[in-house]
Amino acid sequence: MKRFFVLISFLFIIQASNAQLFSKEKVTYDANQGRGSTDNRLLRWGYFLGINSYDFNFDYKEDLRDIYVKKSPGFSVGLIGNLRINSFIDLRFEPGLLITTRELYYSQTHFTGTSFKSSDLIREVKSTYVHLPLLVKISTKRVNNFKPFIVGGFSTALNLSSNEDNPEDNSNGQFRTKKSSLFYELGFGIDLYLYNFKFTPSIRGLFGIGDELVRDKDPNSPWTSNVASMKTRGLFINFTFQ
User: Fold this and answer.
1) What is the mean pLDDT of residues 158-186?
2) Residue 112: per-residue pLDDT
3) Is residue 131 within 8 Å of residue 95, measured between CB atoms?
4) How many angstroms separate the CA atoms of 225 and 217, rounded?
5) 3-class state of residue 21 by DSSP
6) 150: exposed, middle or buried (C-beta count within 10 Å: 0-12, 13-18, 19+)?
7) What distance in Å separates the CA atoms of residue 53 and residue 200, rounded to the nearest whole number?
8) With contact defined as beta carbons under 8 Å apart, do 214 and 240 qualify?
């Protein structure tokens, strides 16, 4: 995966140089068969590739040692639908598939008075999200071949790897999370105008709104009893092509 994104970055640098992004020559972004820049179209389409890093934010009932979350880089891919409101505001729908893995490490303090094995201190949380964000993009005026912007909005996600309905819980090694979640998102990026398409790198943060933890049957479970809420946090680095 890392080699893939290095290759993408390398190709982008070559193309950007040819397009003279850093010169005063203004590239006419025209992928609309000579009918003018697609920036002026009411609807535009594209796709994105990216990497993601997901985390959990825990709130606790008692002051025990925090649950450590080990993050792993994930992969993102999806489509873009862009509705032009005016020259500076766009409404965007970016359905995508996001794959990520997190590992939770528990302190032995959570198991005081309870017998446990070393494997009980670790829980792996694999997630495959169908991610559905609705975003507002606010751009500055285009300067040569650059157009910075900020973006924000709300999203929902369906976790295809969720085991919410699994009758087994952590006592059988099953850490359970809810199937669907709500988030708000904030980010920024820059549109880069090339000869044949528009390339957009962006960074966006994702923040969970509701509790996503499914509690164990045992109200005194060392895995879930001390957790007041568990909410997802995420960071996206996306590369968009339009």
Assistant:
1) 92
2) 81
3) yes
4) 10
5) coil
6) middle
7) 19
8) no
* Measured CA distances, 182 to 9, 37, 111, 163, 207 (Å): 32, 35, 31, 18, 9
Cβ-based neighbours of 107, under 8 Å, separated by 6 or more:
64, 65, 66, 67, 121
Can you read off the two tokens belonging to residue 159? 């976790």
**Amino acid identity for residue 191 in this structure:** D
- Return the residue matching tokens 């890392």: 2
Count of other CB atoms within 10 angstroms of residue 20: 15
Residue 24: pLDDT over 80 = no
> Which residues lie below 8 Å from residue 10, measured CB to CB, with a gap of 6+?
none
Extended beta strands in 89-226, E state: 89-93, 96-105, 122-139, 146-159, 180-193, 198-208
**Reported pTM:** 0.81
Q: What is the C-alpha to C-alpha distance for residues 167 and 131, in angstroms, rounded to an integer?
A: 26
Minimum mean pLDDT among 28-37, 106-115, 125-134: which range? 28-37
- 226: Cβ contacts below 8 Å, ≥ 6 apart: 60, 61, 62, 64, 110
The sign of the dihedral angle between the CA atoms of 139, 21, 37, 240 is negative
Specify the residue for token string 């201190």. 121
- Distance separating alpha carbons of residues 167 and 199, to the nearest angstrom: 46
Q: Which of 87, 93, 193, 200 is nearest to 138 (CA)?
A: 87
Residues 6+ apart with CB under 8 A from 47: 77, 78, 79, 80, 240, 241
**3-state SS track over 125-140:** EEEEEEEEEEEEEEEC
DSSP 3-state percent helix, strand, coil across the chain (nearest 5): 15, 50, 35
